[in-house]
Amino acid sequence: MSETPDIISPCAGEPNSVDTIGEKNPHPKENELAVLRKTNIALESRNFELREQVRQLRLQTAAAESQRDQYKREIKKLRDELNDYRSPPLVLGTIESVIDETHVVVRSTTGPQFLSRVSEHLDPKDIMPGTLCAMHLQSFSIVDILPPKYDSQVSAMEVMDTPDVTYDDIGGLEEQKQLLRESVELPLKSPRLFETVGIAPPKGVLMFGPPGTGKTLLAKAVAHHTKASFIHVVGSELVQKYIGEGARLVRELFQMARERSPAIIFIDEIDAIGAARGNDSYSPGDHEVSRTLMQLLAELDGFDNRGDVKVIGATNRPDILDKALLRPGRFDRIIEFPLPDEEGRRTILEIHTRKMNLRKTVSLAEIAGETEGMNGSELMAVCVEAGMNAIRKRRTMINSEDFAKALAAVKAGRTGIVVQQPDAMFS
Ligand SMILES: Nc1ncnc2c1ncn2[C@@H]1O[C@H](COP(=O)(O)OP(=O)(O)OP(=O)(O)O)[C@@H](O)[C@H]1O
After folding, report:
1. pTM of structure
2. What ipTM was assigned to the predicted interfaces of this complex?
3. How far is C-alpha 216 from the chain's CA centre?
4. How do residues 151-205 score in pLDDT, each as one tens digit?
5. Nearest alpha carbon, ligand 1 atom 31
6. Is 418 in the pocket of ligand 1 (CB under 6 A)?
C-alpha cells in the first residue's frame, strides 16, 4: 500500500502570485487550480485505498465471525454432553392432576403414572395439569418444568421441501449415483416396475465413508430428482436426555415422512444410535440409546417398502454398527463413498470453479494431481480460498498462484473460511 500523501498546500512549492524577487506571475489562478487538482487526485486515490481496506476488513470480520459461531456451537455441544454425563437421564411426563403444593400425579411418556414430589426450587404457580415436566429417574420427583412450546422434534430434524442439489453438482461417484438411483429413485418413480418383475425394492440404503465425501449431497440430489421431501436428522440428536424421547422422535420422524411423502429420511451419524454395545459398562444413557435403536428397527420393519418413503443412513464408522440394522428388509443396500480419485477430484474442482473467473493458465487437472487424499469438502475449500487470494490482491481473475497458495493453506488446515456457499461469493 502506498504512503498516505500529505495534503498539499495550494501554496507549498508552487509559484506564488508574487514571486520571491517581486515579479508578477502572469497566471496565478491557473497555478492554484493545478495544485488543487493534484490535491484532489491524491485524496481520491487515498479514498479508494481506504475503501479497499474497509472491504478487506469486512471480509476478514465475516470469516472471523463465522469461525466464532462455529466455536460457540462446538462449546455448546460439549457443555450439553458434559451435563448429560453429570446428570442421570430424566424422564419426561405430563402433569395429570395436582394433589397439593408438593404432590402431583404425572403420566410419563413411557406410559405409567407416578405420584411425584415437586422439587422445592420450582414455583408452585407453574405446577398445573397439562404441564410438561422432567422427572428424576430414580426418585420420580419433578426436577424441571419445560416451556409449553418445548418441541424436541424441531431441534432434531431439518425438513426441506425439495433440495436444489442436482446430480450435476456432484463430481465423480458415478457408481454410487447409479446404485442410489436404482435403489431409491427408481422405486419412487416407477413402483410398478418392481411389482411387475416381482421383487421388493430395497427399504433402506446405508452410505459409509470418510467425512466430506458427498454422502449428504447425493442423498439431497436423489430427493431433488424424485421431487421428494428431504428430512435430515442427525443420529446424535435423536439421543435425548429424557427417557422415551428418542423413541418418540423416531416415531414422529416416520409419521412426518408418511405425511409429506414422497419423502426421503436421511439419518446422518446413524452410528450414534446404531452402534453395537458391549455388555459391560452399560449405563442408563446406553439403555436410552438402544431404546431409540429398537424403535428405528420397529419403524423399518413396519413400513411398506413399496411405499414412497425411503430411508438413507450415513456413517463414517460402519465397523461399529449393530448387525441388526443391516439385516435384509432394513438397510439392505450398502454403498461405499471413498475419497475421490484423481479424475473425481478434477470433476469436483470443475464443479466448484464453474462460476469462478479463472485465467486460462489455471490447470484443474494439475491441481487434481496435487490434491491426493483430499475430500470434496476440502477441494471446495481450495477453490474458495483461491478466490479469496485474488480478492486480497484486488484482482478479479484467479491465477495458478492463487490456487498454489490456497492448496498450501488448506493442506495446513489454516484457512478458517466459510466453505458452504462459494456460489454466493462469485455470482
Ligand atoms: N463429490 C462431490 N462433488 C462436489 N462437491 C462435493 C463432493 N463431495 C463433497 N463435496 C462438497 O463438500 C461438502 C460436504 O459434503 P457432504 O456434506 O455431502 O459430505 P458427507 O459425506 O455427507 O460428510 P459427513 O460424513 O461429514 O456428513 C458439500 O456441500 C460439497 O460442497
Report:
1. 0.65
2. 0.97
3. 10
4. 555 556 778 888 889 999 999 999 999 999 998 999 888 888 888 888 888 888 9
5. 377
6. no
Cell numbers given for 157: 430434524
Whether residue 10 has a cis bond before it, omega within 30° of 0: no
pLDDT in tens, 337-351: 999 999 999 999 999
**Is 235 buried (19+), middle (13-18) or exposed (0-12) by CB count in 10 A?**
buried
Beta pairing, strands 331-336 & 204-208: parallel
Mutation pick for ligand 1 pocket among 216, 234, 378 (CB with most ligand atoms within 8 Å): 216
CA nearest ligand 1 atom 19, residue: 212
Whole-number Cα distances in Å, 335 to 137, 182, 201: 40, 12, 16
**Which residues of the chain carry a pLDDT beneath 70?**
1-26, 81-89, 109-111, 148-156, 240-243, 276-287, 304-306, 414-427
- Dig out the grid coordinates for 385 from the structure: 480460498
Backbone angles phi, psi at 175, to 5 degrees: -65, -40
Closest CA to 110 of 86, 137, 131: 137
**What does residue 230 show for φ and ψ, rounded to 5 degrees?**
-115, 115
Residue with cell 431409491: 184
**Rounded Cα gap, residues 293 and 110, in angstroms:** 15
Of 296, 226, 287, 294, the residue nearest 267 (C-alpha): 296
